[in-house]
Structures are given as structure tokens and as C-alpha cells.
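User: quick one, fold this
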Amino acid sequence: MLLYVKNILNINIIYNMNKEMEKNMEKNIKKDDITCFICNKKLKLTTIECKCGNYYCKIHRNEIVHNCNFNYRLQEKDRLEKCLPIINARKI
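Assistant:
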């Protein structure tokens, strides 16, 4: 019984330590530490995230320059399929 209680206490201590570590990691991640994905240039807070999920400076912002892997054609095709109605002509 005593060993069982010690194991539970050890598990609780480890669990609490992991929670504290997660909180510290969240505090260390700052919004102003955004850098360009290619040249690591420090960026301002007003920079816009690319659709591929990375941040780029004004030189590498163009999707052709940074070889963006986001499929713009598929996105536009899906948008058009949702917005445009299907029209079936009557047969003569």
C-alpha cells in the first residue's frame, strides 16, 4: 500500500512538472520573434503569413520566389464549385 501511494505521488509530481514546463515554453514563444523562413531576417508584427504557413520578408514574399507549395488552383476550383450553381439545360 505504501509503495502504491509513493508511485501515485511520483506520478503527480512528474505531471505537475510537465505542466510547469509547458507554461514556461508558452511564455518563451513571443510574437515579435517572427523571422523570414529563408533569410532569417527579423520581421515586424504586421507581417502577413503566407498560405503555406510560413512568414517571409518583402524580398521572399512572392510565392514564385519562395517556391510556395500551396495549391492555388485547387483552392480556386473548390471555391468556384461551392459558389456557382449547376445548370442543366433541357433537352429539345
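User: anything notable?
Assistant: The chain has a mean pLDDT of 75.
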